[in-house]
Design a protein that fits this description.
With about 200 residues, the protein is of the alpha+beta class. It has one domain (about 5-180). The chain has helices spanning about 5-25, 30-35, 50-65, 85-100, 145-155, 160-180; strands spanning about 40-45, 75-80, 110-115, 140-145. A 4-stranded mixed β-sheet has the order 1-2-4-3, with helices on both faces. Strand 1, helix 3 (about 50-65) and strand 2 (about 75-80) form a beta-alpha-beta unit.
């Protein structure tokens, strides 16, 4: 399955999700600062298979490692045409970690996962808590370890982020989650309970 959306539409959809859900619900207290400072690089991958995705991931990891953090602090590598199945996506995370190690970037960069079907271990597929990591498209979030460390040090309740997110989403429920995106320009592939 591939997306018929243009790269601009895909990026706009991801930005809406970031603004409405991630920042709007404060699911990641660190996201707002890099968003406001325009330090997030959005890349729509051309990859349609694992090999081409691995090549793109190498390029983006190297680009982030070489970029000035004041200009590009983090990268969202958006995958509209590959790894649409969550289990396949989840399996690829081991490949992504191996690539980070092969590039000798472990301890410098890390990869965090987001997916429309994201599911934590020991949860049901429709458990609302999975939505902390559900995005409109599969996304490999490339992060600088230094930035993560600084953000954690600056946020005194870092240990409570996950439990706060669970409480927020349980209070919101599926109806509330879907309502977040009502009135927002409809995105092809809008996230709903059934996705």
């Amino acid at each position: 399955m591939t997306s018929n959306d243009s790269p601009d539409e895909i990026i706009a959809s991801v930005k809406r999700w970031l603004e409405v859900a991630v920042i709007g619900l404060n699911l990641c207290p660190f996201a707002k600062a890099v968003h406001v400072k325009n330090q997030i690089r959005y890349v729509v991958a051309d990859a349609t298979n694992i090999d081409s995705l691995a090549d793109e991931l190498v390029r983006e990891l190297e680009a982030l490692a070489e970029a000035n953090p004041e200009s590009v602090d983090t990268t969202l590598l958006i995958l509209p045409n590959v790894l649409q199945d969550f289990l396949d996506f989840n399996d690829f995370l081991d490949v992504a970690d191996s690539i980070v190690e092969e590039l000798e970037l472990d301890g410098i960069l890390q990869v965090a996962p987001f997916h429309p079907q994201f599911q934590f271990e020991d949860t049901e597929a429709d458990d609302i808590t999975n939505y902390t990591n559900r995005s409109p498209f599969p996304i490999l979030h490339l992060l600088r370890e230094d930035s993560v460390t600084r953000a954690v040090e600056a946020f005194p309740d870092e240990m409570h982020i996950a439990e706060n997110n669970i409480a927020t989403l349980r209070k919101l429920g599926h109806v509330g989650w879907n309502a977040l995106f009502d009135g927002v320009a409809a995105r092809p592939g809008r996230m709903t309970k059934d996705e």
